[in-house]
C-alpha cells in the first residue's frame, strides 16, 4: 500500500513513533503487535501523566505555608484560561479604542473642512481665526488616525516576543557557528587555534554573559535616540546572550561533522579535480548536514532555556519577565500563573525540538532516528 509507506515515512521523519502503530493497524498488520506499540507509546505515557497529576494534586494540598500554596492542576488550568481571556479582552479594548480614535479623526477632519469653508467666506479679520481652527482640527485628526494603543503586553504578546528573541539570537549564533565550524573541520590548524576558546567559553553561564552583552549594546547605542533604534536595548541584550550561549553545540557538531566526512568522497573529488568551493558545497556540507542539524537542535534547546533567564535580568518583555513580574506581584493567583507559564515554556521547547528533529531527519542518509 502506497499510503502506508508514505505515512510510515512521515512518522519517522517527523520523529513521531506514537503514530506508527495506528498506521500499521489501519494497514491490517498484526493486531497484537500493534496493540503492544500503542500501549508503549500512548497508554503508558498517559498513565504516567495521570500519576503525575495525582501526585501534583496531593502535593498541592500538602505544601501550604502562611504566605503561599503550591497551585493545584485545576488552579493552574484556570489561571491559564484567565491569561488567554485577559489577552482577548485587552485586544477587544484596543480595537474599541482605535475605533473611537478613528471616529474622532473623521469628526475632526469634517470640522477642519467646515472651518476652511467659513474662512473662504469670512472677512480678512476672521479668516485667520478660522484658518487656525481648521489647522488645529487637522492636527487632531492626524493624531487620532495614527493612534497606537499603549497597553501593557499580555501573556500571548510576551510569548510572541520570546519566540522572536530566541529566533533572532539563534540565527545570529548559527551564522557565526557554522562558518567557524566548517573552517575548524577542514583545517586542523584552525581547529587547534579555536579549541582553547571553545573549551573556556562553552561552559560559561548566561548570567555571566548578560552583563557583558549589556555593556556592549549600551555602548553601541550611545548617542542614539531610542525612538530611532530598530531594536530595543533589552531585546538585543537577551538575543545576544542567547547567541553567546547557544552557538557552541552547533560549532562543535559542525566541526566534527566536517572532519568526519568519508575520505573516499574527498579522494573522488580530487580525481574529478573539483575546486575547493565545489568540494565544500557538493560533498562536505551535504555529508555533514545530519551532525550539523543535531548541533542546531541542541543549540535551539539551550537558547530557549537561556532566554528565560536573560529576559528576567534584561527586563525584555518576554516569558522570563512575565514569570519574574508575576512572582513580584504576590497575588493569590501568582503561583498558578507561574506554573502555567512553566508548562507553556516546556511545551514550546518540545515543539522546537520536534521541528529540529524533523529537519535533521530530512537531511539524514539512511534510516532516520525517531528520538
From TrEMBL:
<feature type="transmembrane region" description="Helical">
    <location>
        <begin position="234"/>
        <end position="262"/>
    </location>
</feature>
<feature type="domain" description="ABC transmembrane type-1">
    <location>
        <begin position="159"/>
        <end position="356"/>
    </location>
</feature>
<dbReference type="InterPro" id="IPR035906">
    <property type="entry name" value="MetI-like_sf"/>
</dbReference>
<keyword id="KW-0813">Transport</keyword>
<feature type="transmembrane region" description="Helical">
    <location>
        <begin position="283"/>
        <end position="314"/>
    </location>
</feature>
<feature type="transmembrane region" description="Helical">
    <location>
        <begin position="159"/>
        <end position="183"/>
    </location>
</feature>
<keyword id="KW-0812">Transmembrane</keyword>
<dbReference type="Pfam" id="PF00528">
    <property type="entry name" value="BPD_transp_1"/>
</dbReference>
<keyword id="KW-1133">Transmembrane helix</keyword>
<feature type="transmembrane region" description="Helical">
    <location>
        <begin position="204"/>
        <end position="222"/>
    </location>
</feature>
<dbReference type="InterPro" id="IPR000515">
    <property type="entry name" value="MetI-like"/>
</dbReference>
<comment type="similarity">
    <text>Belongs to the binding-protein-dependent transport system permease family.</text>
</comment>
<feature type="transmembrane region" description="Helical">
    <location>
        <begin position="334"/>
        <end position="352"/>
    </location>
</feature>
<dbReference type="GO" id="GO:0005886">
    <property type="term" value="C:plasma membrane"/>
</dbReference>
<keyword id="KW-1003">Cell membrane</keyword>
<protein>
    <submittedName>
        <fullName>Bicarbonate transport system permease protein CmpB</fullName>
    </submittedName>
</protein>
<feature type="transmembrane region" description="Helical">
    <location>
        <begin position="41"/>
        <end position="59"/>
    </location>
</feature>
<dbReference type="GO" id="GO:0055085">
    <property type="term" value="P:transmembrane transport"/>
</dbReference>
<keyword id="KW-0472">Membrane</keyword>
